[in-house]
Prior knowledge:
14 helices, 2 domains, 4-stranded antiparallel β-sheet, single chain, Arc Repressor Mutant, subunit A, alpha+beta, 53% helix
Amino acid sequence: MPKKPQPNRSAPAPVPSRQGLVTTLRRSQIFRDYEQAFRRTTGLPLVLRSADALAPEIISGRRVNPVCAVMAESRQTCATCLKLQKRLKHEAHLQPKTLHCFGGLCSSAVPVRVGEDLIAFLQTGQVLLHAPTRARFERATRELLRWGAGVDLKRLEDAYFQSRVTNPRQYDSVLRLLAIFAQHLGALSNQLILQEKCPEAPAIAKARTFIVEHHANEISLGEVARAVNLSAFYFCKTFKQATGMSFTSYLARVRVERVKHLLQNRATTVTEAAYAAGFQSLSQFYRVFGRIVGEPPLRFRERLHGSGGKSATRRRKPPVTAAGR
Length: 325
């Protein structure tokens, strides 16, 4: 007679904190590869900052814009930059936002979200979206003098007129790429939340693998429990302890991640994606997707593809005939 499994008395698996998620994302290979490719392609800095971070600068060290480096020598300009970053963080809570400092350099933030939770920002900028002019420079220096900022104006002038200039339309495209990448980081964060945190329970790891491989089917808790040789009651209790969520919630998250992946294909409709991921009804799908992602699937697709994302769900208008004119 097989021995009855002993209850797992370990503490529930901790859900990764916001700062922990951001640290893991920042160290991930996908972010490091993307950051390097982004910097080499655009010439712009890119950092991933926790939504709780208060650091005023976008980037520091050798990659900082020379104009910002000169102005950072003054306490007054640092305080102004900090105010700008706080305002940027507030206004970029739901969608990408770009603000300009008194010197004309832009600063942009793209939110990274997991459902309704804002966890981080992708930040770039420190670039001019217009050619530097004498009038704009003199206007900025008047502000500095009014504040009493001790800045070397000659060095500032040299740095200003050598600043990188990016076409506004090109910069908008850069932000669009960052918005798409933010979606991927959000999905990766969701996967980190889903990861099993209890190494002494190998049955849970096996169960997670089974769920991922069969999520498109109509699977039940009992079926998964049998697959890992546990009773339904004991599996339910152990799974919740190990993952921090119920079997139903875990399965829903796996299916939603599959839908988000399928919606990257413009030819796939929302309905097709929902049923392909294993949802049994559209009402259930819309309810679950909205709860986990924080917005309806159509809105998610629009943000993923821009205005073109609506095309897969719109009906084509019938051709106008002579009789219908």
